[in-house]
Design brief:
binds 2-oxoglutaric acid, alpha+beta
């Protein structure tokens, strides 16, 4: 199914079905495994920068499951193209590039960052409600960017699927900046809003100002997503750059 721009603009998120060819989907699983293995060999400083381990985060976010059950499970592998450069292929994936061009209204687009976010079976953590603009990791100075989640396993309602508050993106940039500066927290129940349930190989586009989050993965299946932040070329960025920062999207 092609990208539905009208729906993205009215809801603040959009799903592109069957966007990733089967061979690329299968390859991504192997790339991620080898990227994680490479990152686990890095020195402590690099690990502190690029790896978020489940064991370093609160028990509450994973339904109270204790640290002793987690091993070295990785929640986020940042700077993904440093550890698995093959993922730069996503910047040439036609369905992803087309959807970004439509959503951002420009053909001159660059990647900001790319990570792999894994909600492991049974304990993959909840993600609190937030907007991506502005963010403390690597943000545009204005909201001419978005995030794409490339779903390796799909997202089931009880498998920690990302949830959205449709329409919540309709605030101006000044409002979103003031809200963040004021330390406002979006406090909703974990299953509030609408789940972006989807299949392996689907994309989910996230408007930078839509409020979204998601519950823990209580299912027996993993929920692995590659997340790419994409913005209009030339926009100033705030935050530390990654290997992929500034790389063009091309068809
Ligand atoms: O992994 C998810 O469910 C959401 C990721 C997210 O909230 C984000 O990248 O802003």
């Amino acid at each position: 199914m092609p990208f539905d721009l009208q729906r993205y603009e009215s809801s603040g998120y959009g799903v592109v079905r069957s966007a990733v060819p089967a061979d690329l989907l299968a390859a991504m699983g192997a790339w991620l495994a080898s990227g994680e293995a490479a990152a686990l060999q890095c020195n402590p400083e690099e690990q502190a920068r690029d790896l978020v381990y489940e064991k370093d985060l609160s028990d509450a976010g994973r339904n109270g499951i204790s640290v002793s059950e987690l091993g070295d499970a990785i929640f986020i592998l940042g700077d993904l193209c440093r550890y698995a450069p093959q993922f730069s292929a996503l910047l040439r994936l036609p369905a992803l590039v087309h959807a970004c061009i439509l959503a951002l209204g420009s053909t001159k687009l660059v990647a900001h960052f790319m990570n792999a976010t894994t909600k492991h079976p049974r304990f993959g953590r909840a993600i609190g409600w937030h907007r991506d603009f502005p963010n403390g990791y690597l943000s545009g100075t204005d909201s001419r960017f978005l995030r794409v989640m490339v779903c390796l396993d799909g997202m089931a309602e009880h498998g920690g699927a990302t949830r959205f508050l449709p329409g919540s993106h309709r605030v101006d940039d000044g409002y979103a900046i003031a809200e963040k500066r004021g330390g406002a927290k979006h406090r909703y129940a974990a299953h509030h809003g609408v789940a972006a349930a989807c299949a392996p190989g689907d994309l989910v586009l996230i408007h930078p100002k839509v409020i979204h989050g998601g519950p823990a993965n209580t299912s027996a299946l993993p929920r692995r997503n590659v997340i790419v932040q994409v913005g209009v070329e030339g926009m100033e960025l705030v935050g530390e750059q990654e290997t992929v920062t500034g790389w063009s999207l091309t068809l």
